[in-house]
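Narrative of activities, Objective 1.

The group set out to show that a structural description can be obtained from nothing but a protein's sequence at a throughput compatible with the screening campaign. Below is one input-output pair from the validation batch, recorded exactly as produced.
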Amino acid sequence: MQGKTLQGKTALVTGSTSGIGLGIARSLAAAGANIVFNGFGDLKEIDALQTSVAQEFGVQTAYHNADMSKAGEIEALMKFAAEKFGAVDILVNNAGIQHVANVEDFPVEKWDAIIAINLTSAFHTTRLALPAMKAKNWGRIINVASVHGLVGSAQKSAYVAAKHGIVGLTKVTALENAQSGVTANAICPGWVLTPLVQKQVDARAAAGNLSNDEAKRQLLQEKQPSGEFVTPEQLGSLAVYLCSEAASQMRGMSLNVDGGWVAQ
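Output recorded for this entry:
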């Protein structure tokens, strides 16, 4: 068990009721941070999740159901976090959605929704978190991009555009705050077996009349040389490291955790 290096800090993790966001939230809680959860899901399950994380790690937790495609709701989320815990010390922009289609067939409303949730929401949370971070001269902004912030894949125009945008936003945020105690970095995961990716596995299995295991194997084989999924826990450990003093000169980085995907 790691030390409570983040005791007294508050972390807001968007899209944290499942998958990567939940893995990062749990790791930050294990390091002592209070957690503001955000995301969709059954309210009873989310309530149980909050309680279990609070009890397991001895931290305080809160939840806000802001729709990350709406600026007004994001403002309400940030205000809620500040009222609850004083300020957001660690901001993890993780909320994301996906749609797969060729550019000429891509539904315009899907493009707009993906850009809003995967990119614009991070601009809103960042602009609202920065004043308090700068006042304290300490803050960590961690943007969960993707290998698709570094390379492209067919049929993912909106997602790839949004994730490349997140990498750019990360660099600018880091540069603007380079002489302060506020850092901004991006984590770029490869395939992680999240509910979002499981849907793609299921679709592949159905289309090819394959077993789920075979569909997973094929998915990994195409892109991820290790042949293994990245875990939310691995990404969580990296997030905790980025919050440490050891990482205080890591600024504007895009750290791919991808089983060798981008090395090819």
